[in-house]
Amino acid sequence: MSPRIQLPSGWVTFVFTDIEGSTRLAQLLGADYRPVLAEHRRLLRRTLAATGGAELLTEGDSFFLAFDDAAAALTACLTAQRALASHDWPTAEAAPRVRMGLHTGYAEPRDGEYASPEVHRAARVAAAAHGGQVLCSASTVRRADPLPPGATLLDLGLHRLRGFDDRERLFQLVAPGLERQFPRPRTADAVAHNLPTQVTSFVGRQVERAELGRLVEQHRLVTVLGAGGAGKTRLAVELAGGVVEAYPDGVWFVDIAAVTDPGLVAFAIAAVLGLRPEPGRPMLDTLVEYAAARRMLVVLDTCDTQPAACGEVISRLLSGGGGVRVLATSRESFSLPGEVVWRIPPLSVDPRPDGVESDAVALLLDRTAAARGGRRPDPSESADLRRVVQRLDGLPLAIELAAARLRVLSVGQLAERLDDVLGTLDAGREDPDPPPVERGWSGNQQDTVDLVAAAIGTPPPTPASRAVQRSATERHLTMQATVTWSYRTLGPRAARLLRWLAVFAGPVDLPTVEWLLGDDPLDPLSVLVDKSMVLAEPRAAGSSYRMLDPIRAYAARRLAEAGEEQAARDRHVAWSAHALERAHLGPDGRPVTLSLYTLDPLADELRAALRWCATGGSARAGLRLTGGLDQWWRERGLAREGRLWLFRLYGRIAETGERIPDAELAAAYHMHSLHAGADGEFAEELRYSQRAEAAARQAGDAGLLARVLAGRAAPLVDMGQFFEAERVCREVIDWAHGQDVVGEALFAVFSLAELLWRRGALDEAAELLGAARPVEAARPVERGRRSVDMLLGMVALARGDVIAAHEHLLVALRSRMGHGYHGRACDTLNAIAVRCALGGDRLTAARLFGAAQSTRASMRATPGIYGGYWADQQAELRSMAGDAAFDDAYGEGAEMGLDEAVALALDVEHPDLAADSTRFSTDLSQQHTRPPAHPAHPASRTERA
Questions:
Q1: Would you say residue 491 lies in a domain?
Q2: Is the pLDDT of residue 580 over 80?
Q3: I need a surface site. Which of 355, 567, 641, 741 has the fewest CB within 10 A?
């Protein structure tokens, strides 16, 4: 310092400057560094000292000055930065980037120097700056009036300076000719993270959060995979926020969606960490060197926007030092060594065992309350809330969008509209059809883009390019936009497979996908799984593959737009028919006893195929599909649904004029008649029975006519015309014998046996059933029902033969439940209840009655010919047990599921094992004291078989 310069006193503004990355610059320039350093000093002395600043210290690349005027100090720094920026340096890499810091405090010089903490505070302000940046404290701002022309001060918020316990509000000098975008100041903030602040509550995911937390703790690279809108980012941020204290060097969030060029990925991460490019050195090397000695967690979000570049940066970061961990979110993995891939599941849609609502419903409740001004849905809407989240497959984004719709719709209305998932969720929003970028846009992201552009010497994005980038915001505003991003990254084969898979309503296995395409699907299927557009679910028998409903709806739109819908859906109908055929065959291709359980997994696929048949495909193919589900509709309490499908197919026939053979129409009308009877529509039942007869006679098929005529008794019984029904049954049976189609008239045999049982002709009924047993056993479609055993059990009950009843009814119940005949199993439960009442076990009888009635009510089943009998037996049991005991036991049974009730029935002790049974007595005089009823009849002997 010159002795002629008088040091200011009182309120003094201290200025510190130095060259950022001076060591690296010296290494780069070698002998050429000295002239650059000298020129730097000359420019600073001319602009800083010449404007009234007292130069206190010059050491290496650093300057320390004192000003008695804060405004003059700011003007000097501005002039110096402009001079440095406009100077003609030997090369662009040789240009020194100087950081400057100012602070104003009260100080008195002594012996040509200042011994004041204000000097140290000024030095820390300068240390927080970046090359080319001018930072100042709030104290300087208060005294800097007026500011240099065209200059403003940008408030950067409160920061804790190294070595100081309090927080200092820092400001950045902004003026023409100065850079504007810089990383966050290099300060010792207590909270070492930049995680985005969430404006909505985090709901659920306790299990997933714990599982992901363990993985992050145990592995250095964890990639969270999932479809768009699955909640990857939200979960990653929530997890990272809870582990900040575990990483001394911070938890840093980087949104790769803001990066529009692969070469900028390293720059984006460096900008978040507060790093600037070093002259002549790749940014990635600078980043790796910085991270090598630090313990920190880097959260890289939306890596699928730049997968290759992210993979390279991650690999270098992890190999450069052992303290860095990376938590990445993406729609596809990096396939890096040591990478742990964790697929985020949809939110749970089923209530927890303790009765607490599922995470999906909890999220919908929370967001609906926000959409409705704080009003939560009414408890009466709970069932519809569950319908909504199940229809949306627990996809968080879809649930958020659905909640927004609840501003104008009730939950029930929304649930009814979700057949058009995209149209309902995206209603009122324009589809931006965005380019492949992720996440919502924010000011911080824009700053990052501008900063990275400036750091590598390129101009900031133009308004036009920013408009393209801002479409990232809109990507999560609609489901259409969310899925479009991923779809655009697919090759032709993968895109076609995605479109064609939309015809399936549920999971499919690999052979099914191969069957659909007629080609090896492994390569395109792998692409779809890797990009999280198809979920692979491993099972012991082989993986299955499914799409979430919103993705399926999008793929279906693309299928129609591509002009492939007719071919793909016709192929699906053919697959459905083939699957129905296989359900009736064993591994050797021969018919097996039909199990309705084999049809349960096909139900949704068959509905999807029927929907196409009724709207754009072949009604004839649809009638064949409904025929394959004939018994399934009624045994699942869905006779009404079966009728509706038939009505829709009739309408399709009228619309297209498609020719349907008489035999196929007769079969459809016959099935319709049975559905109508099960649904309590007796007039419709008779009408379609008559139509079936007319079509069958026109077809000239004796077996078909016998089957149709055998069903004629059902509507007559339902309308109370029992004698006419018996006459019809006898005529049909006699005619079938004459035509040698006895098996096709088996339904008439069973109906006649029921009518005989009803009027007490038990011997004739037993004889008829005994003759029918081999006929039933020879028919795979019917033998699983074990109708002969059920009816023989009813005959035994009427005779009071508890042993025979027990044996026949349990055989019937095991078979019916074993083959999925739930409706008929309810009749058998009622019969076993009567057997229990006859055996003195009144409480078990009441429980079984309650269980059977509850299940039948849930299936909306009509009581049938046994209805009056069950009512009489329950009334008699009530009188014996007493009202209170009967009601308690009946209520217990009503709370049981069907499986639980069947287990109770099968556990009923055989009468021969009762303490008072004499069947196995060693005293011959006590044996056969109650002989089988009517031993002279062969049928009675058959009952016990």
A1: no
A2: yes
A3: 355
